[in-house]
UniProtKB/TrEMBL annotation:
Organism in which the protein naturally occurs: Varunaivibrio sulfuroxidans
Pfam families xrefs: CN_hydrolase
Protein origin, superkingdom: Bacteria
Name assigned to this protein: Putative amidohydrolase
Entry keyword set: Hydrolase
């Protein structure tokens, strides 16, 4: 198993000014790198939090011309760190992919994952979301190679679909990335317990950077970026304000957790 490394979650309060959002995310990532981070994860919609299908489409770019991706690739080269660009709005036909992109220290895109599960919900009190009206869902699970092990990629609402994480773990995932913009309502109720459950069920680290605060159209996100151990311990919690957390990650703890409870080997058809 690989050596210990340091992971960071960057937590932001993104608005509609993409240049400003990119600048803030990059500044926090640089601080995380100065604090020792080798792998820096950013949240869902890190470059833009807007409201309405037309606004999302108008602010989406092809991947090759996306200004946020260009900035984050340059950031990876500058800091010589691995960067997870939480998600970016990438134009695909008449819809948009909510795409998570992994970037090497050389600035190369090494993996991309399009959010599979669409957040189509009615939370009460007039709070409703229909991601499927704007976004094209992905259709493939993605395992990415890091120097320290395999990263299972996911986004936000995917967290409620444990079979995705089980599949990733059984295919070799050591860490799960869960960049998110969890709502205040659902975050208070479910965020911590779901992240801990995915870690415990699979003996994996969970690295979950989050949006926080109040956004356009009074949308409220929960914050509390988390890093969770394979035993379910919360190793870092970002609280409710923009900032970052850094946590040492010991891949040996994955082996130890799975040795104690080898549930990945105990799955049975039924």
């Amino acid at each position: 198993m690989a050596e210990v490394f340091t992971a960071a979650c960057v937590q932001v309060n993104a608005g509609e000014d993409m240049d400003d959002n990119i600048a803030h995310a990059c500044a926090l990532a640089r601080r995380a790198r100065d604090a020792g981070a080798d792998f820096i994860a950013m949240p869902e919609n890190v470059a833009m939090m807007t409201w309405g299908a037309d606004n999302v489409r108008a602010r989406a770019f092809d991947e090759d011309s996306h200004p946020a991706l260009a900035a984050f690739r340059a950031l990876a080269q500058e800091t010589e760190a691995w960067i997870l660009a939480g998600t970016l709005a990438v134009a695909v036909g008449d819809k948009v992919a909510n795409r998570s992109i992994l970037i090497s220290p050389q600035g190369t895109v090494t993996a991309r994952y399009d959010k599979i599960h669409m957040f189509d919900v009615d939370l009460g009190g007039g709070e409703s979301y229909r991601e499927s009206a704007t976004f094209a869902p992905g259709a493939a699970a993605v395992l990415a190679e890091l120097p320290w092990g395999k990263l299972g990629m996911s986004v936000c609402y995917d967290l409620r679909f444990p079979h995705l994480y089980r599949t990733l773990a059984r295919r070799g995932a050591d860490f799960f990335a869960v960049p998110a913009a969890f709502t205040q309502v659902t975050g208070q109720a479910h965020w911590h317990v779901l992240q801990r459950a995915r870690a415990i069920e699979n003996g994996c680290y969970v690295i979950a950077p989050a949006q926080c605060g109040v956004h356009v159209n009074d949308r409220r996100t929960y914050g509390h970026s988390l890093i969770v151990s394979p035993w379910g311990e919360v190793l870092g919690d970002g609280g409710v304000d923009p900032g970052f957390i850094v946590v040492p990650i010991d891949p040996g703890q994955i082996t130890e957790a799975r040795r104690k409870i080898p549930s990945l080997r105990h799955d049975r058809p039924f």
